[in-house]
Amino acid sequence: MESYDESQMVYCPYNKEHKMLRKKLQQHILKCRVIYKDTVELMVCPFNKGHLIPEPEFFQHTKSCEDRKIIVHYQTSAPAVLNEDTRHAKIECEENWDDDDVPDYDPQVYCSTANIVREPNGLFPSQRKAFIKEENRRQFGEDYKEEKPPKAKKRADTRPAPYEAWTPYSRRQ
């Protein structure tokens, strides 16, 4: 087993005998929280959700938490100062995208007028036939007539005549 630097190792807040790598702590806490949910009551630090502290020590921890200084620094720091280097002139544009007289883009309307092959996806068979018929009219013109395959011959017409054997040397006469 590899030996790790002691600074990478941390103890579980639920059971101090559990020692693991810092990067595995959150995964381990999820398991220990279920095991010790009735016996150990820990509070979550408001500055770092990874800090779980017993209730008696919570007040002291919030005063001395190392992550508190990040929040305090953010709250007390002054806003950024804008000077001539960071300012820029207002950008004027002749386009107005908020005009109401421009119609919305409708892809169905565009596809029905453009030379695009459309598929009858998600339609019932009768709707699919009507869609294909309408698409053929749209693409090939109003005078387009659907070419129907020739009808099959009746079954009786396609059967050969029964075999009648002719026997020239028949004894019957």
From TrEMBL:
<dbReference type="Pfam" id="PF05253">
    <property type="entry name" value="zf-U11-48K"/>
</dbReference>
<keyword id="KW-0479">Metal-binding</keyword>
<keyword id="KW-0863">Zinc-finger</keyword>
<feature type="domain" description="CHHC U11-48K-type">
    <location>
        <begin position="42"/>
        <end position="69"/>
    </location>
</feature>
<dbReference type="GO" id="GO:0008270">
    <property type="term" value="F:zinc ion binding"/>
</dbReference>
<feature type="domain" description="CHHC U11-48K-type">
    <location>
        <begin position="9"/>
        <end position="36"/>
    </location>
</feature>
<feature type="region of interest" description="Disordered">
    <location>
        <begin position="134"/>
        <end position="173"/>
    </location>
</feature>
<dbReference type="InterPro" id="IPR036236">
    <property type="entry name" value="Znf_C2H2_sf"/>
</dbReference>
<keyword id="KW-0862">Zinc</keyword>
<protein>
    <submittedName>
        <fullName>Gametocyte-specific factor 1 homolog</fullName>
    </submittedName>
</protein>
<dbReference type="InterPro" id="IPR051591">
    <property type="entry name" value="UPF0224_FAM112_RNA_Proc"/>
</dbReference>
<feature type="compositionally biased region" description="Basic and acidic residues">
    <location>
        <begin position="134"/>
        <end position="158"/>
    </location>
</feature>
<dbReference type="InterPro" id="IPR022776">
    <property type="entry name" value="TRM13/UPF0224_CHHC_Znf_dom"/>
</dbReference>
